[in-house]
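User: Teach me something about this protein's shape.
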Amino acid sequence: MSRSPNRILDSLPDDVFSALEPHLKLVEYKLGDVLAEPGGEVHRVYFPHSGVVSLVVELSVGEMIETAMVGRQGVLSAASALGGKVSLNKGIVQLAGTASAIDVDRLRNVADTYKSFRSLLFRHEQVLFAEAQQSAACNARHLVEARMCRWLLRMRDLADSDDLTITQDFLAQMIGVRRSSVSLVAGTLQLAGHIRYRRGNIRIVDAAGLHQTACECYGTVKGHYDRLSD
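Assistant: First, the predicted structure itself:
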């Protein structure tokens, strides 16, 4: 029987999970909530059950560009349990949901006691860094259509749903393009029968079709996370 909707918590040995469980608190977050600020001290670590949190870089002109996503396969601010004291990224909720939250000092104590858990957190942070590197390469070299398909498929995996509550404005910010470019690509994908779009919602109709159009970055990042708990 599953102990948690979060993949990392669910994969833990009984003794590690038992050490964490009394300190885990169920929290809800809504669209636009900021769970981490760059340079800000980390007080809580989040193991998402549902929803998606974007790690973004803010530019001086007011734009945000996404570097990675955290959902039920991962954990937000795990580096704090490995010795980090401040967040290096802004974590903003792009899809509302729930999470198990734990005080950072409690998590650090468990990580110090159970080396296997500490190792798992370290490997997760490596995967998150690899995703950020992949996103940088993707944004630099791949066409908007391929990047948007990659993003939609990744969101689908994390949300475990074909219905994504997302605006074109926010999507444009996340992949670093103009809104007009997103509108054009969304229209093309809709005509191809891959998605249905209405204001504030994208429904994925043909995931296989999106996969054919997406760049290799989707499969690369998915593979990293699939191997995380091996």
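Now, about its shape. The chain has nine helices and ten strands. The longest strand covers residues 52-58. If you'd like, I can walk through any region in more detail.
User: That's plenty for now, thanks!
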